[in-house]
Input
Amino acid sequence: MRGGKVLAGVGLVATLAVLGRASVARSDDFGDGPKTTAVPAADLGNLYTWVDGSNLALAMTVFPAATTEAKFAADVQYVFHTSSGAAFGQTTSNVDIVCTFDAAQKISCWVGLAVYVTGDASTKEGLASADGKFRVFAGLRADPFFFNLVGFQSASEAYAVSKDNFQTDPSGCPWLDFGAAGSLRTTLMTSAGAPAVDTYKNLNTLAIVVNIDKSMVTFGGPFVSAWASTNKAQTQTGGDQ
Output
């Protein structure tokens, strides 16, 4: 077992029926708190998953607004967690893909106990296992997440002004009628009345992208859920490692 305390946030997604049609899921999570933002290389931004033929692709981004000088941290574990089962919400088998880097940015990745690769994963082709069932890329990429900051801020301000007029459910969440919901949705989808502007359009990020044969992550069944974490490595003096 590779132990470690969670240092940054996690992104949660579900990829349904990886043996069926291709679909894409994603989650955004930059800037959770002071401990996260203090270590940009561990600041988990997005997790994307999709089906690529007979493979499952997973991609995580870290280090918001990364420059060409940005590097992955040598004391952080970058982990893709997968769970598989026969139906949605009924997973019975877990497989973790754990990647680490040294100071020279050489990557080492473990797929459970089945596969281990190490080397330079920054080339276009990435780094592949001997049997070709696992491939990983790690390096600087344009941030693919679309976020309309102006629209989000405007919608947040509009909600703050009118929230006292909304009824809430037992958990405290607001009930919005069609008119209020439509107004907020329109605000979110525009930028000061103009078409939405992608705030991340000119920003880069560090990305780890893996492409893995589906047979390696579907021991429990064809439904796979995935989430990602960044973990600060720690020393354990007793127990299983």
In short: The first helix runs from residue 34 to 37.
